[in-house]
Amino acid sequence: xxxxxxxxxxxxxxxxxxxxxxxxxxxxxxxxxxxxxxxxxxxxxxxxxxxxxxxxxxxxxxxxxxxxxxxxxxxxxxxxxxxxxxxxxxxxxxxxxxxxxxxxxxxxxxxxxxxxxxxxxxxx
Length: 124
Ligand code: HEC
Known about the structure:
- The chain has 124 residues and is mainly alpha-helical.
- The protein contains 4 helices and no strands.
- Helix 2 packs across helix 4.
- The structure holds heme C (HEC).
- Heme C binds next to helix 3.
- The site of heme C has 24 residues, from helix 3.
């Protein structure tokens, strides 16, 4: 009896671990972005920046290219489309200085707008 219960417990832990792993996004199914209504004030300001400066070239809520690669789940993946690690240190210079066909926005965004934008990108 005790053994059966232990067995059940182990199965539960394994199932939980598998769910946690797939939720963390191993590349395939990322799950939905944070809902617009759940955004913090900063994330909501970042969304407005995104809509003004980024949305014309990047999808936020679906995969696939527009003029640039989709940013859906950009920080939930390990790497950016270029292969650089997906973190603020790598995304910031792309936003400020651009990259290949992407223009830079260093002259358009102040520090607060950049911080807000990055906060929003983390919700995708
Ligand atoms: C005029 C179209 C255009 C606009 C507007 C634009 N991008 Fe891009 N973006 C691109 C293209 C094209 C690429 C692919 C560049 C490359 O790696 O060749 C790209 C790449 C990226 C990447 C991936 C970089 C990498 O290392 O793979 C990120 C992140 C990104 N853009 C974020 C943004 C953000 C945030 C904004 C808004 C501030 C924005 N982009 C606005 C066209 C655009």
